[in-house]
């Protein structure tokens, strides 16, 4: 027997204060993005299945249309946004800064509410991190836990990585890329002594020491590490973790990558990516997890 108030596992229900907080988060983010020259896009909830298979790590919810073509619920808004804008972008007829506020759907019944930001003309990751902090600060200023800079509230961490590093290490030292995806420490560290040292890097200082100690690294690896170090030096955030061997979960990421997380929940994630030959940068705000974090921070 299914009770009338039950909802499928993974679905979301917001009412009262939670629903209001969701709208406030979306309104604050929209205001910041409009101020930075972004325009809004809302992509179709359904797409042809062939356009949803590129996400690789997410199962799709599928059905068929009246012509028996396979249709899927949207499971990645970044791919959809680039795919739908690409023909117009080639004609330089559109703005190249976009954001969306809409859920994605993952098989069997999971929905994830997101605010996504895509920039197709400027890949300054430090700028995206600053915007992300602006959104977080705006939301915290509305809560009892009023500032991310308050040391007592420092439960929120920023993680920086560069997808090129595990890719280069996989090719150079013969490590299966899936070992980085699954964080198989034994497979990574047994391949080369350098991997054990690189695994211990956790901040800008330790990364710089590693690079100074190993001045004969392959040039492409050294360049990727230097990109990560320069980003770390440009971000004045106390709880910043450097993870050179972290491999981003979405396979379209191609370079520098960041995420804000707290209590094992990712609140914001983004970086450099390439889709359909289009280079871009962007980030996503995971609204559901941010709401829960704000409520816990307020002691509710």
TrEMBL record:
Keyword match Transcription: no
Domain Class II Histidinyl-tRNA synthetase (HisRS)-like catalytic core, residue spans: 18-289
Q: Which Pfam families match?
A: tRNA-synt_His (PF13393)
Please indicate if the UniProt record lists Cell division as a keyword: no
InterPro entries for this protein: aa-tRNA-synth_II/BPL/LPL, HisRS-like_core, HisRS/HisZ
Question: Per its UniProt record, what Gene3D superfamilies does this chain match?
Answer: Bira Bifunctional Protein, Domain 2 (3.30.930.10)
Give a GO molecular function annotation for the protein. glycosyltransferase activity
Which domain of life does the UniProt lineage start with? Answer: Bacteria
Recorded protein name is: ATP phosphoribosyltransferase regulatory subunit
**Protein source organism:** Helicobacter turcicus
